[in-house]
Amino acid sequence: MRIAGTVTEEIVRVLALAGIGVIHFTLPLAIALIGVLAIVVMSYHQVIKAYPSGGGGYVVSRQNLGETPGLVAAAALMIDYILTVAVSVAAGVQALTSVFPELYPYRIGLSLLAIAILAMGNLRGIRESGTLFAIPIYVYLVAILSFLGYGMFRLATDTLPAYTPPAEWIPATTGMLSILLILRAFSAGAVALTGVEAISNGVPAFKAPEPRNARITLTWMALLFAVIFLGMSLLTSQLHLLPDPTEKETLISTMVRVLIDQRWIHLVIQFSIAILLLIAANTAFAGFPRLSFILARDDYMPRTFARRGERLAFSTGILVLAALSGLFIIIFQSSVSALIPLYTVGVFAAFTLTQMGMVRHWRRTREKGWKLSSLINGTGAIVTGVIVIEAVSVKFIHGAWMVILLIPLLVMMMRSIRAHYARLETELLLEPGKLDMTEVRPQLVVVPVAALNKPFAEALAYARDLSSNVTCIHVAEGPEQGEEFRRRWKQLAGDTPLVVIESPYRNFLSPLLAYVDNLHEQNPGYLITVVIPEFWSRRWWEHLLHSHSALRMKRAFLSRPNIVVVDIPYHLQS
Hints:
It contains 20 helices and five strands.
């Protein structure tokens, strides 16, 4: 779940468009959002109960509603994870720029650096360090609850200080409040519910008994968020606080500065918020790779997403998540307000499909208490479904169109990947009785030769072991270079057949490919083997000094049917 102050700020940022006088609507909207949160949390309690092995919205939707709803839920969750990293990191950097304004021009670079550190840490396995993450969470809770307690004391004793809003907001007092604006503010605050699905996706990561501990964690997350969110919203409406139009300072920072003008308190609260937001971003580095693994296991994502690295982390998923979230940071200039409108549609689409799937699950299994569970999940589906419709309506032109476009594109991509693997399995399937090891095909061996050196000598020796029918091919720049090569050939290579092809434009690959293609057409019953000599440097930087023509040849020949490519590496000793 998002930091409460960030959610409050986004609600106020929308309401302020109608004027300073309507900030008091912040508290009613917060109460309504907490009501929605309670419904969603109760609904996800049922998800954890029914699916203790994890998987979340994708598994629930696919098993109960079918393939397409499952893929839609998966696509929505993938977008949610990407935006979780982008928004959380951007908000964390914004918390730092609130106390160090001189860092504001470097916010994009700082955000990308934070994403890189999170990615590297997850590749190294820091997700297991629960104590490391617990300390900043406790610091944040102590700091923010103490601050809110002090704020409530000032409110109860009627000693709240005066606040002067930023000059840029003053002309907005002539605006008009409309139902559309209230709905937009509600939709902006609905991002508070993101993170609920992360618990149900990662139930196996909890200590035994996993389902019970996951449900307890989800309940405590919701309760603490509700208390802090209500407190922030109440103080904001009473102080008539407005967010910084330039996004250089967060609303929480402004509130701390107004209520307690103490630098060290300001620093403690902002630093704890920044670290907590990075931890929130880190949850996506656990969720996205695991979801990608499940999709890859079902052949909806490239199989490299199912491969674990040396530290048993899903390396591909971590790197892809880092790259995509970094791209969003760059496109939207690390602006939290610009990223927020993209959030709600995908999150609540996944919520809705998950709850619909759970209703179907309970009606099918009819376990003990299924009617009550079905009612809870059905209520959750209706509420979140209404919010999806509302979010699409009021946020479409503010960025929701991008998510609406991305979801079907991702579904099409996953279907195409699945179809590719199905075609591949059909084509590669070996029928009974078709494995015949007795037939030996005649072989023609071709050895491309650029220079008469040790790598070529080893390749030629190997080629002669394969077949007596060996032909070497040299591509020369012109007649003089061709004659000179033939002369040296007679001295060093003996009676091995040599074909010299002249290519005045120094293009060695096209003539070589044309020759092999022609050889294949003239000898349809033969197996053609291309033996490629290649030297290999010991130091990584030495590879940058060479043209890698052997690699280009291998790629070109591997794309041709009925051609066998053999690479003969020569390892340099110096």
